[in-house]
Amino acid sequence: CDADSAGVQVGDEAVLTIKGDSSRTYGMQVRCEPGVELTLDNARIDNGNSAHALSFSGDDNTLTFIGDIMVRSGSDRAGMKVGNGGKLTIYGDPDKEYRDTHILCEPGVTLKLRDVYLSRHDVYEHILSFLGDDNTLLLEGDTSLESDGDFSNIFAGVHAADGASLTIIGQSDNACKHITVACEPGADLTLRDVHIDNSDQDNTLALSFTGDGTHPSALTLKGDNALKSSRNGYAGVRVGNTADLTIQGNGTLTVFGGDT
Q1: Does the N-terminal or the C-terminal CB of the chain have fewer CB atoms within 10 Å?
Q2: Which residues contact 41 (CB under 8 A, 6 or more apart)?
Q3: How many CB atoms lie within 10 A of CB 146?
């Protein structure tokens, strides 16, 4: 798997480690069927403008990052895709920054991130994108999803597309840093024990809803939730022009805006 271009099919319940040289970039396409345990060890994958560099289907897949990692395709194609109804857990190192890894989640996906620091730098608008109904994102350990764009450009760590349904589950005793959540018209977002702290950043909202005057959005609260936006005057939650938002549920939400 150290060739400049390779196609890799990983069958059901297979265990595979792809080892690379962090000074090189590999043009690869890796497809994983259900139950796969995949480890990327200093593997920087860039598949150009063709298919997704890495894709997962089915249940019980795990992906572990070791060393210097990148998973990227062309600007019009996510580097990584989790297919309809897929379940994927990604393990990382919170002291390592994984740049330009965009993950597209099709309807019904459950994605768990543990100690993963993903960042966006000019290639994609968002880091995680969720489509359709019944999606779940679990944030565990020291996880960050950092976008380098001003939020006026609607860059986000977590993006719920038009009409998408997404539940984010966090840890009430641990705040994740550098996470922005952007919800398009008609999105249905549930927060359960989600704590986000962006107070050491600039130009960063914790949560935003945009509208089109037609499709209402909903925010459902479960457990204890707290959102803190950046230090330079941004609101903790922004509801944009023509947005129609209903806040419901039996949980709590504490919101902090910027300090200036």
Answers
A1: C
A2: 17, 18, 19, 20, 66, 67
A3: 20
The string of pLDDT tens digits covering residues 46-65 is: 887 667 899 999 999 999 99
pLDDT digits (tens, 9 = 90+) for 179-221: 889 999 999 999 999 999 888 877 778 899 998 888 999 999 9
Q: Which residues contact 173 (CB under 8 A, 6 or more apart)?
A: none
Alpha carbons 94 and 143: distance in angstroms, whole number: 7
Q: Is the pLDDT of residue 1 over 90?
A: no
Q: Which residue bears the tokens 């200036």?
A: 260
> In 3-state terms, what secondary structure has residue 80?
strand
The stretch 144-171 carries a mean pLDDT of 81
Give me the phi and psi of 194, to 5 degrees please: -100, 125
Q: What are phi and psi of 121, to 5 degrees?
A: -140, 85
Q: Provide the terminal-to-terminal Cα distance of the chain, rounded to the nearest Å.
A: 51
Cα-based distances in Å from 260 to 202, 206, 229: 11, 16, 11
What six digits make up the tokens of 149?
Answer: 């764009």
User: 134-145 burial by CB neighbour count: b if 16+ within 10 A, else e?
Assistant: ebbbbbbebbbb
What 3-state DSSP class applies to 152? Answer: helix
Within 10 A of 197 (CB to CB), how many other CB atoms are there? 18
Cβ atoms within 10 Å of 242's Cβ, excluding its own: 11
